[in-house]
Design brief:
mainly alpha; 15 helices; 71% helix
C-alpha cells in the first residue's frame, strides 16, 4: 500500500504548527542581572575568532589599495604634531611657556586619539555592519569591540612613535612618573568602551548621533589640556567648583596622567591637580559602573537592530 504524499499546503501547516510550539529565544536581556552580563561575556568570548577577523578586516579596509598601506597610520599623528607644534607652539607662542613642547603635545594627542577613535568607530559600527547583522546572528557587542581593537592597534603605533621621540631627544621618561601611564590608559579605555556601546546602539535609531559625536569630540579635544597646560586653565577659572568639574573630566585626567608619565620637561616646574592618582582611580570605578549601565541599554535595544537597519 502506497503512503500518500503530503501536499505543499500540509507541509506549510506542519511547519507553522512546529513554529507555534517552539520556545522563543530572547536576543536582548530582559533585565539587569549579573548572570545575564556574564552570559554576554561568555558569548563574546566564544566568538573571539570572529572578533579577530573583524578587527583585521577593519584595518585592511582602512588602507585598502593604498601604496603605503599601514604607513599611513604614521602620517596622521606626525602631521598633527607638526601642525600643533608650528602653529600653536611657534606662531602663537605656547612653546615658550612649556618646555619640550613637542613631547608635551604628542603625549596629550596620543591619549585623545585613542579615545576619539574608539568612540567614533564604535558609534558607526552597527550601522556600518548592517548587511552582516541582517544575515546572521552574532553578539552585537562584537562590532563596537572590533572598533576598539583597530583603535588599539593605531594607538600602539602612535605610542611607539612617542617613545622613540623621547629617546631621540634624550627625554626618555625613566622615573616614578611612569606609574601614571597604566591607570590613565585604563580610564581612557573604560570610558571609550562605555560610551562606544551606548552610542553604537543609539545611532541605529537616531542617525544624527554620529554627527553629534564628531562635534562633541572636537569640543572635548579643545577642552582638554593638550595644546595648553592645566596651570593656564587654573589661572583663568577662578571658581573652585568649575575648576574641579573641568579637572575631573575623565579625558582631562587621562591626558594629565599621560603628560605626568611621559613629559619630563615639566618635572619640577609643571603643576598637576592634587591626588591625581586617586582621581584616576575614582574615575576608573565610575567608568566600570557606566560600562555596566550602558551595556544594559545596549542589550535592551539590540533586539530590534535588524528591523531598524
Amino acid at each position: 500500500m502506497t503512503t500518500p504524499t503530503p501536499t505543499d499546503r500540509e507541509v506549510r501547516e506542519a511547519r507553522y504548527a512546529a513554529l507555534r510550539t517552539a520556545p522563543l529565544q530572547t536576543v536582548g536581556s530582559s533585565g539587569p542581572s549579573f548572570s545575564s552580563s556574564w552570559g554576554s561575556l561568555r558569548e563574546i568570548w566564544s566568538q573571539r575568532q570572529m572578533l579577530d577577523l573583524l578587527i583585521r578586516r577593519d584595518l585592511k579596509a582602512r588602507y585598502k589599495d593604498s601604496a603605503l598601506g599601514f604607513l599611513w597610520s604614521l602620517v596622521r599623528p606626525l602631521t598633527q604634531l607638526l601642525i600643533y607644534y608650528v602653529v600653536m607652539g611657534q606662531f602663537l607662542g605656547a612653546a615658550r611657556g612649556i618646555p619640550d613642547f613637542a613631547i608635551y603635545i604628542f603625549s596629550g594627542l596620543t591619549a585623545y586619539t585613542l579615545f576619539s577613535e574608539i568612540v567614533n568607530g564604535s558609534t558607526g559600527s552597527i550601522v556600518g555592519n548592517s548587511g552582516l547583522i541582517k544575515k546572521i546572528y552574532l553578539p552585537r557587542e562584537i562590532f563596537p569591540l572590533a572598533s576598539v581593537g583597530s583603535a588599539l592597534f593605531n594607538f600602539a603605533i602612535q605610542f611607539g612613535i612617542l617613545v622613540i621621540a623621547t629617546i631621540v631627544l634624550g627625554k626618555f621618561p625613566l622615573g616614578p612618573g611612569l606609574i601614571y601611564l597604566i591607570p590613565s590608559f585604563l580610564v581612557l579605555l573604560v570610558y571609550a568602551v562605555a560610551f562606544g556601546l551606548l552610542l553604537a546602539a543609539l545611532n541605529v535609531y537616531m542617525r544624527d548621533i554620529q554627527y553629534l559625536v564628531d562635534v562633541a569630540l572636537m569640543v572635548l579635544m579643545w577642552a582638554s589640556p593638550i595644546v595648553y597646560s592645566w596651570t593656564m586653565v587654573k589661572s583663568v577659572i577662578h571658581s573652585p567648583i568649575l575648576l574641579e568639574v573641568y579637572t575631573n573630566n575623565p579625558l582631562t585626567l587621562a591626558v594629565l596622567g599621560f603628560q605626568r608619565a611621559l613629559w619630563i620637561g615639566g618635572q619640577g616646574t609643571a603643576e598637576y591637580p592634587g591626588e591625581l592618582m586617586l582621581r584616576l582611580g575614582i574615575a576608573g570605578v565610575v567608568g566600570l559602573v557606566l560600562i555596566a549601565l550602558f551595556h544594559r541599554v545596549f542589550t535592551r535595544l539590540q533586539g530590534n537592530f535588524a528591523q531598524a537597519l
